[in-house]
Design brief:
By secondary structure, the protein is α/β, with parallel strands linked by helices. It has one domain: Rossmann fold, CATH 3.40.50.450. Strands 2-1-3-4-5 form a five-stranded parallel β-sheet, with helices on both faces. Strand 3, helix 5 and strand 4 form a beta-alpha-beta unit. The longest helix has 14 residues. The protein is globular, with a radius of gyration of 14 Å.
Length: about 140
């Protein structure tokens, strides 16, 4: 199964259960698993190098990077930079009427400003249908 890496800061994660659930359902219809790094892994102080090594390996193994930046996060910005260097497609998502990241917007292949989790799912679906190379074998 193909994998989409989902970048979000650990502190912001608790506010996005509905969006993540909806994304998982939408992507599963296309045989894409959503890997939420902060849900899958837990690191302690002193394990920063291991954390980034694993994050980079997971991005390498993913077909696309989806980043949620309703609230800006430095670590997610690092993931975006890495994905750009590896020529991975990037989908930048944020809730409507929140501050735009010009840096991430400039690095992304697609940007979605969504109203709710259903709207987000609809917009992701449009991207998948429009871009046949996204997560293709």
């Amino acid at each position: 199964m193909k994998t989409a890496y989902f970048g979000i800061s650990k502190s912001n994660r608790v506010h996005f259960d509905k969006e993540i659930h909806q994304l998982k359902k939408c992507l599963a219809k296309h045989s894409i698993e959503l890997l939420v790094f902060v849900d899958k892994y837990n690191f302690k102080v002193g394990q920063e190098k291991e954390m980034m090594s694993i994050a980079f390996k997971e991005i390498d193994n993913s077909c696309v990077l989806i980043v949620e930046l309703t609230k800006k996060a430095i670590g997610v910005g690092v993931e975006v930079g890495y994905a750009v260097a590896k020529q991975k497609p990037i989908i930048y998502i944020k809730r409507k009427e929140t501050k735009h990241s010009t840096t991430v917007g400039g690095c992304s292949d697609y940007s979605i400003e969504y109203e709710n989790e259903c709207h987000l799912s609809e917009e992701i679906e449009k991207i998948i249908k429009k871009d046949s190379s996204l997560c293709s074998e």
